[in-house]
Amino acid sequence: MLDNLTETRNNRIVGFLFNFIDEKPVANKIDAAVAPYNLSGQTNPYFFPTTGSPLITRQQAMQVPAVARARQIICASIGTLPLEVRRESNNSKVTTPPFIRQPDPRMPASVVYTYLAEELLFYGEAYLRILELDTAGRPLSAEWISKTRITKKLDARNYTVLHYELDGLKVPDTGLGSLIPFTGLDEGVLNRAGTTILAALALERAVKRYADEPVPHVILKSNMPLPKERVTALLDAWKSARQQRSTAFINDTIDFEKIGFNPAELTLNEARQYMATEIARLMNIPEWYVAGNSSGSMTYSNVTTERRALVDFSLRPIMTAIEQRLSDIDITPRGSFVRFDLDDFYRGNPLERADIYTKLVPLGILTIEEARMMEDLVDNGN
Fold first, then answer.
1. What share of residues in the chain are helix, strand, coil (percent, to 5)?
2. Fewer CB near the terminus (10 Å): N or C of the chain?
3. How far is the C-alpha of 192 from the C-alpha of 50, rounded, in Å?
4. CB contact at 8 A, 161 and 39
């Protein structure tokens, strides 16, 4: 208990000192006006769907291996990136405040930011609920709230957000218990691509059916009438026997007729590969990340190139939505901004880094001590 009180006191002190970065502290104004437009809502005719809920739920989508893989690559990559605060005037680093470093004291920051990124990817919107405020009215801690628990009270045109409700109860517009909304750059893949994911899910179910009964559909015809109980027992025995051996024996009272197609004739493998490609497109990531058909071996050089491409074309929209919302003056003092630190993510192999140092140190851009610090070679005195 004493440790918790000490940590809370220290967080308040750090939060208070952090506000001196701003010349004129601005009171916290987290309310529905921060996200004034119902961009990803169900009633906006410019986005999908125009009515009702998304065609597919998160739970259904995650049953498709390609979707789960893409979610892990995009969201977990973002969630594990460190966040830093810099001054707008000279781009110098500022001590990262407790809220940015760990929004919810009860769980790692990577978990919170991963699920924020996931909901921006899936739904186009995400939320935190404020648990604690500092002396200037900025959040000290907040918890992630699933978008599925949030509803919006809209104006008569169904465009402007008037207030939010959590589990059917109105939340405060400001202060403790209010929401910090994060708005994505589109309506989310579950809204705009639900049909494609449903098709992939149906394909996975078809694969399971053929795994359960790995033979073409057949009809057994009896040359004499059989009671319902005998028919059921015959079908059960047939299914059990086919799971043990592929060869069957029938007497002259039973006729066998094949209908449908086997998995090879249905080209299920090709269909799954095609759906993986389509999911890679809708997730905006390279096909080989989810389809497993990389054309060549990965080296240090092309791994770095691929990571840059992944950030530029896949991660950047979600990262920007999180960075800019955290940079708003109701969270970060004016004159500072929040951004993800990509240095380690882009970090090249030792030979590439050594080549950079041999060029930058003679030019005076880097000192030898700074280069050693970047390589974690600084003597800590131990």
1. 45, 15, 40
2. C
3. 10
4. no
